[in-house]
Design brief:
By secondary structure, this protein is α/β, with parallel strands linked by helices. The protein has 2 domains: 48-166, Nitrogenase molybdenum iron protein domain (Rossmann fold); 191-314, 3-Layer(aba) Sandwich (Rossmann fold). It has helices at 10-26, 30-45, 72-80, 112-116, 132-138, 152-166, 169-190, 215-222, 230-233, 244-250, 260-263, 267-271, 280-283, 292-296, 302-314, and strands at 3-4, 49-53, 56-60, 67-70, 87-90, 122-125, 143-145, 198-202, 226-227, 254-257, 287-289. The strands form 3 sheets. A 5-stranded parallel beta sheet has the order 1-11-10-8-9. Strands 5-4-6-7 form a 4-stranded parallel beta sheet, with helices on both faces. Strand 2 and strand 3 form a beta hairpin. The N and C termini lie close together (8 Å).
């Protein structure tokens, strides 16, 4: 049977619900209000802080109260570390969590004036498209660029950076620890049974894939999986286009479909492709139907992905 990657993320939801629960239960409790006030004061007292992003060192004078995120991964991270209430606007691709303040702001064709309308005291983005970092700089808007992670360590470091930048350093450390623990447990649960097994990760039905040098490829390496795309990956910057004949010939033991949302691919449609019914992953039911978003982002939900890989490998 194919395995489907759940979109649920209990850790993030807990982080979102906690302020609501506290507000509902606080009532007239002086202790509760005092604790919240004390926490807020402590976070604010940590400023100014200096953080380093892809665009260099940034000094943030006061705890940000109006954050704009132009990165779907950064949005997930901000909400996971309890900085959600400080986020006032996110770009059009930031679809998780569902209550993030999604707008028509584009991360691909960003416009400094459109961003400035939200009066941000911090903008977080992944890519410097159209020279947006310099444009925001001219408007004196603090901007933190956090480029695509290449490894899990990069992801943990970005969480720490966002924690420092928003006044949620302790929350960020807890999220990173939870991710590490869950991923380690997933890998341990498989043990040595995956050694010698191979994986094919599909980005779209035209057989674009990922090599071991990419972020998602590094997750497969943790399990000891051999990536069938590696022979072609270096020449393609880690993202080679394979062919149906190549994939069938490589006979992968695990296939991960990261094109279920964009392209409606499933284990069933995969099995109907010519000769794919002979591939070990298809024959043995080791096809993971993953969410495109989860498999392409380097945020906290990568732990969900690792757990789903483990479940699929164990059968």
């Amino acid at each position: 049977m194919p395995r489907s990657l759940s979109r649920s993320a209990p850790l993030v939801l807990v982080g979102l619900l906690s302020p609501l629960v506290l507000a509902a239960c606080g009532g007239s409790s002086d202790d509760g209000g005092g604790a919240a006030s004390s926490t807020t004061t402590a976070a604010a007292a940590a400023f100014p802080v200096a953080v380093t992003g892809t665009n260099g060192k940034l000094t943030i004078d006061e705890q940000p109260e109006s954050i704009v995120s132009l990165s779907a991964t950064a949005t997930e991270m901000l909400f996971a570390i309890d900085a959600g209430p400080q986020v006032k606007a996110v770009d059009s691709t930031s679809n998780y969590p569902t209550d993030a303040p999604k707008t028509d702001l584009s991360a691909f064709t960003p416009n400094a004036e459109a961003i400035a309308k939200y009066e941000p005291d911090l903008v977080v983005l992944s890519d410097d498209m159209n020279g947006i970092v310099a444009a925001l700089g001219k408007l004196h808007i603090p901007t933190l660029q956090l480029g695509a992670a290449a490894t899990l360590d990069d992801s943990y470091e970005q969480l720490a950076t966002l924690g420092d930048a928003t006044g949620h350093a302790d929350d960020a450390a807890k999220v990173a620890t939870d991710m590490k623990d869950r991923i380690d447990a997933a890998v341990t649960s498989v043990g040595d049974s995956a050694k010698g097994m191979s994986v094919y990760h599909e980005l779209d039905p035209t057989y674009y894939s990922v090599g071991s040098s990419t972020f998602i490829g590094s997750v497969y390496k943790l399990f000891g999986l051999e990536n069938i795309a590696d022979k072609a990956a270096d020449a393609a910057g880690g993202y080679p286009q394979l062919s149906a004949e190549f994939v069938v010939g490589a006979a992968p033991d695990l296939i991960v479909l990261a094109d279920t949302v964009c392209c409606d691919q499933t284990a069933e449609t995969l099995a109907k492709r010519p000769a794919f019914d002979t591939v070990p992953a298809v024959k043995d039911g080791r096809v993971l139907e993953a969410s495109d978003d989860v498999a392409s982002r380097w945020g906290p939900r990568i732990a969900d992905f690792a757990e789903s890989v483990a479940d699929t490998l164990k059968g």
